[in-house]
Amino acid sequence: xxxxxxxxxxxxxxxxxxxxxxxxxxxxxxxxxxxxxxxxxxxxxxxxxxxxxxxxxxxxxxxxxxxxxxxxxxxxxxxxxxxxxxxxxxxxxxxxxxxxxxxxxxxxxxxxxxxxxxxxxxxxxxxxxxxxxxxxxxxxxxxxxxxxxxxxxxxxxxxxxxxxxxxxxxxxxxxxxxxxxxxxxxxxxxxxxxxxxxx
Length: 199
Description:
This protein is an all-alpha fold. It has a domain at 36-123 and 145-195. Helix content is 66%, strand content 2%. The protein is built from 8 helices and 2 strands, in the order αααββααααα. The chain has a two-stranded antiparallel sheet with strand order 1-2. β1 (89-90) and β2 (93-94) form a beta hairpin. α1 (7-35) crosses α2, α2 (45-60) packs antiparallel against α3 (63-82) and α4 (100-109) runs antiparallel to α5 (115-133). The longest helix has 29 residues, at 7-35. It is globular, with a radius of gyration of 19 Å.
């Protein structure tokens, strides 16, 4: 074993990191529990695991991972519903071939999502998840384009600004993660209970 990897040294590193992260974790846990539904609800095993991991990513401060896991949670929530017997297609596609956008559209058409919920899911998909999952080459910005408009672009420079959380930037990875996890902890339990007849 390398001399710097002894248990005592590793324990000190963990302890120091825990002390530095305590205030942020406390704030994020308070946010999570104040908005989350702590009662049990039915869902597929994979959707529940994604849900738990999205919450964990938020708690530890892994903001981009929170956004991605939030999207996966909600996509699997819809996909698992449409996999039940008697449902063969989503927007004319096999369930497993349907995109997140297809699933949202079908669920909205079927009356499983309210107009507000549909809008929330599309916002999560387009404004929060897509820029991190499908970043594009930076393009020249037009003079006078607002910073907010620039940050909505899906290029690597916009992502760098969001992740770095520069002074004065409102749309940061953290703020997007907060809205993403809020969507998950409010929508997932309510949707699950509603579609399984428990609400």
